[in-house]
Amino acid sequence: MSNNGITRRNVLRNGAGVVAAGALSAPMVHAQGTGGTLKCGFWDHWVPAGNGIMRELCAEWGRANRVEVNVEFITSVGNQNLLTINAQAQSRSGHDVLSFPTWEPAAKHELLEPMDDVMGRLAQKYGAVTPAAEYLGKVGGKWAAVPAVSGTQLKPACTRFDLMKEHAGLDMQAMWPNKAERGPGADGWTWEAFAAAAEKCKAAGVPFGLPMGQFTDAVDWVGALMNSYGAHMMDARGNATIRNNAKLRQAVEMLVRISRALPDDVWAWDDASNNRALISGRSALIFNPPSAWAVAKRDQPQVAEKCWYAPAPAGPEGRMVGYLPYFWGVWSFSRMKPAAKGLIEFLSERPQAERQTNTSSGYDIPPFLSMSDFKIWETEGPPTGFAYNYPVKPHQNQTTSVAFAPAPAEFAVQAYNNGLNTKLIARIVQGGETVDQAMGWVERELTTIRRGG
Amino acid sequence: MAADGTLAVPTAAGAGSGRANTLQRFARRRSTIAFLMTLPLLVVVVGLVGYPAAYGIYLSTLNRRMTGFMEGDWLPTGLGNFEILFDSDTFWMVVWQSCIFAITAVLLKALIGFWLAHMLHHIPTKGQRKWRGMLLVPWVIPPALSTLGWWWMFDPSYSSINWILNIFAVPAVPWLGEPWWARASVIIVNVWYGAPFFMIMYLAALKSVPEQLYEAAAIDGATSWQRLRYVTLPMMANIISITVLFSLIVTFANYDIVRVLTNGGPRDLTHVFASYAFQVGILSSNIPRGAAVSLFMFPILAVCAFFVLRGVTRRNKEQM
Amino acid sequence: MSATAANRGIPGIYHKAGSLRAERRWALWTAYISLIIACIIFLAPPVYMLLTSLKSNAEISDLTLNPWLIRSPTLENYEAILGNPIFIRFFINSAIVTTCVVVLTMVISVLAAFALARMRFWGSQVLATGVFLTYLVPDTLLFIPLYQIVGGLGLLNSVWGLILVYPTLTVPFCTWIMIGYFASIPKELDEAALIDGASWSQMLLKIFVPVAMPGIIAATIFAFTVSWAAFVYPTAFVTTAESMPLTIGVVSQLVRGDTFAWGQIMAGALSAALPPVIIYAFLMDYYIAGLTAGATKG
Fold first, then answer.
1. 3-state DSSP call for residue A150?
2. Is the CATH code 1.10.3720.10 the one for domain B89-319?
3. Strands A398-401 and A318-324: what pairing?
């Protein structure tokens, strides 16, 4: 980095005055303006093209601002991204721009550069941010990191409309057509109806492919169901709210019912298992972004043609959809803060956001509600418009939700990474414990987490 | 071997007494040279094992943010992490799983290894090299990589093992989904990886049993079972015990197979000490508690190490 | 499987003396049958990995096909892997780390083993025992404090951090093998050398190293395989793809979150396993000598 600076200075001294003037006046916001290298660690995208577009956008921005942008991709498989974040926090060195999953911005906020200026400018242009992103990204009134476009995903239902119609008697295409209206039966798309459909599909040999392990896909959908029942395990002050919690018990009973209608080994499924279940044609429904569809389109096109998105089923307290956001953050020990902020702002703007979403086959969800109208979700197919209901749209009456909200981030992050909610259900269904025993266990775990704080 | 090495020296010094003067100077310089030669080794042993071990003990007494000692409710300050572990169901489950895992896997490895070594020993010497070469392959591939292959063979939707089972009308097995199957899978992979090592050790031991002993036994009319019981086993007892104890240590501390195959799931029922320490210490960034978890391996390993060491010195004495 | 075969086999061997030839033939049959079964089980996973690596994604994801057969073999997975710059990077990292560690290990352990086997000095016996004990300390016991130490030195995410810590895995055992080899060299040799006025370094380089060459090769192979296959330390200390060695690179980077890349994963895993397998194919006897050093020497 310093080498770079020196050569650049030499070049300037050697009379490249015109270039120098250009460089200084370049719109590389409030930066020192002498370039340098910006090291970025983005989430390693599950849609193969998703990495390419980030490289491209960064290169464009780097050219315009005379900054060399070094892009790396960090996978979330095997929690590699968590390892990276912890290692960088520990050694106080690392990337200048780094992708943080769900709870990490809040957990590491003391070490992160506040992003209020960037978010302020973006909010002025694009309006409100989806509530879950604001809840996770804003700590003590300050934005700890900017909700990212690339990698941020929702987990509504990716259904096989043919199997759903044949075995569960539900016409998903009619209920949730590819236009901004609710079809007949859309109001009946509740967890009750969902459980009944799951049972029928299991009987027909095409069970729903819902993971129940400790990975994000599992924790997110279980968390969404609990939130739609208003069932919380911990309150905002960090007290466990397990005992005498009727809503929690109701949600747990529903989860137990649904999980009995799943394949036997869902307890060990990872984030890829549900995709494989869909692609292999053995499953009528999964909760997943369109990456599963994209792979099916490549390898098993006859399966992809039968996919259709529907919002998450509704519970007594609303329709909540699992939300797995990534955030772009800047360490407070980074030496390239202004440039890093400039790049993050550039990536968050609508044209760049749309390009990210487009190349990822509609996978990436921008944080601003005003951006839920990208054309890609209407045109991508076959079947055309299958992803129309993948993003959160006003007619769906749906909100984003995060498992373990509203618990304080420092505790929630551990409960989330440990998959306490899926383990609770697993103890009952697979381990044969009573609901009370399992609740007692989860309460002890939460206390342990609190004590270790 | 330690005894062997150090005993060599007096003989050397005694033999050269004719030139006492030179040798004395030599001896004076010798210890300096010897010390310098062992210095890098000392640095490795003290700096990379001794110091981290002590530092690990210190770490385990700190609180999560490492700003002070971890307080306990009923244990004195500094032992709070251990107290939390004692109170945690998950931790006790991990202890018990590690023990089941290590004991079952080592037993199976020893039995299979012994059987295969015996079979190899039976066939004509000409063919032995070829068979030995093939049977040692699992041990040669880095376990993290071969476990990837097993993982794919255990995949819920695409399991090729289940495909074979289906031919024989056996229902599909939820290899990694059901706790007992998941534990069995981890053990199977570990046995697959480790059995060749036992085989090769036992084969070496079998070859060192003098042929005359068998001939004598045959003349006495001993059956093959009796030959095994009264000739082979006693001759191999030492190697068997050292190999088993050594493998117990390695298996007990295993990490890569669990990490790749199950990552501790379903619901922590396949975690062993190492993977749980990793989960708690590095993934959940609670370094002190992670250090506390891995320290629990120490007493068990120390017991094994004591017996291994005793076995080694006893063997040395017998050989001399 | 073989264990159950064992239980069945033993009463079978139990025959009256006299029908010695029949017993021999029977034993031979049992031996070959169990070896064949064992070979099938032992070789099935690598073979299946090879098969998968030669299939296209569409073929892998088609459930109607026999997974143990290939319909249309393709090299596309290997092309993708070997054309992937990050995979080449992993390979280079592994090569750098392994080479440095092997050289470092051999220098440290040959010097120390010579001193411990041939020169008596204060505490040498304690040290020899200590070295052996260190070998019994598994890497998973110390990786957390080492994580802090390596982090404190600013060597997380660096191959130098790995080169620093790997010797804990290799040095103790290699020293132990070398002590065994050196101790087995007749004392007359060094007495003669001493009387001829050879210095200690001459004695080591001219006499001990050449004579103990098989031991040195065995120890080198051991150090090579251990540092090539090391998993715990790189998982904990290296998180950027840039400085990952092969094992952890294949496990963490090729396994993509939720897509099908099994062909590539298997191709990557097999390519990563190739160097130890090649060494083993050519130097099997040294390899086995290294493995069994603990049993036959001691």
1. coil
2. yes
3. parallel
pLDDT tens per residue across span A116-155: 999 999 999 999 999 899 989 998 889 999 999 999 999 9
Beta strands in chain C, from DSSP E residues, in sequence order: none
* C-alpha span between A9 and C247 (Å, rounded): 42
Closest-CA residue of C relative to A281 is C63
What's the pLDDT tens digit per position in B130-166?
898 899 999 999 999 999 999 999 987 788 999 999 8
Contacting chains of C (3 CB pairs or more, <8 Å) are A, B
What letter represents residue B146's amino acid? Answer: S
What residues have CB less than 8 Å from B311, skipping those under 6 apart? Answer: B238, B241, B242, B245
Domains identified in chain A, total number: 2
Among candidate residues A340, A366, A392, the one where a domain is terminated: A366
Check whether residue A299 and residue A221 sit in a common domain: yes
Asked if A268 and A394 sit in the same domain, the reply is: yes
Same domain, A404 and A281: yes
- Higher pLDDT: B237 or C48? It is C48
- Is A100 found in the same domain as A36? yes
Show me where the domains of chain B are located. 2-59, 89-319
**Burial class (CB within 10 angstroms; exposed 0-12, middle 13-18, buried 19+) of B67:** exposed
A83-108 per-residue burial string, b: 16 or more CB within 10 A, e: under 16: bbbbbbbbbebbbbbbbbbbbbbbbb
Give the domain ranges of chain C. Answer: 2-76, 79-296
Distance CA A439, CA A247 (A): 13
C 20-49 → B contacts, CB under 8 A: 23, 27-28, 30-32, 34-35, 38-39, 41-43, 45-46, 48-49
Q: Hey, is the C-beta of A437 within 8 angstroms of any chain C C-beta?
A: no
List, in order, residues 6 or more apart from A124 with CB less than 8 Å away: none
Instruction: Please give the residue range of the domain that contains residue A430.
Output: 153-324+376-452
The ipTM estimated for the assembled molecules is: 0.84
C-alpha to C-alpha distance for B70 and B289, rounded to whole angstroms: 10
Same domain, A141 and A172: no
Q: Residue A38: in which H helix or E strand, if any?
A: strand A37-43
Q: A352 with A420, same domain?
A: no
Element (H, E) at B129: helix B125-135
Question: Does residue A371 lie in a domain region?
Answer: no
Three-state DSSP class for A37?
strand
Residues of chain A with pLDDT under 70: 1-35, 452-453
Query: For residues B224 and C297, what is the distance between their CA atoms, to the nearest angstrom?
Result: 28
For residue B63, the SS3 value is coil
CA C287 from centroid of its chain's CA atoms: 9
Q: Cβ C32–B123 below 8 Å, yes or no?
A: yes
Domain assignment present for residue A439? The answer is yes
A15 min Cα distance to partner chain C (Å): 37
Distance CA B287, CA B292 (A): 9
Question: Biggest alpha carbon distance in chain C?
Answer: 78
Please answer yes or no on whether A448 and B88 come within 8 Å at the CB atom.
yes
SS3 category, A329: strand
| pTM value > 0.90 | no
**CATH of span C79-296:** 1.10.3720.10
Which CATH number is A240's domain given?
3.40.190.10
Q: Is residue A342 part of a domain?
A: yes
- How far is residue A381's CA from residue A304's CA, in Å, rounded to a whole number? 9
CB within 8 Å: A430 and B88: no
Say whether both A283 and A418 belong to one domain: yes
Tell me which DSSP letter residue A324 carries.
Answer: E
Contact B205, B239 (CB under 8 A): yes
Q: Which two tokens stand for residue A436?
A: 């009370």
How many residue pairs from chains A and C have C-beta atoms closer than 8 A?
Answer: 93
Query: C233: exposed, middle or buried (C-beta count within 10 Å: 0-12, 13-18, 19+)?
Result: buried
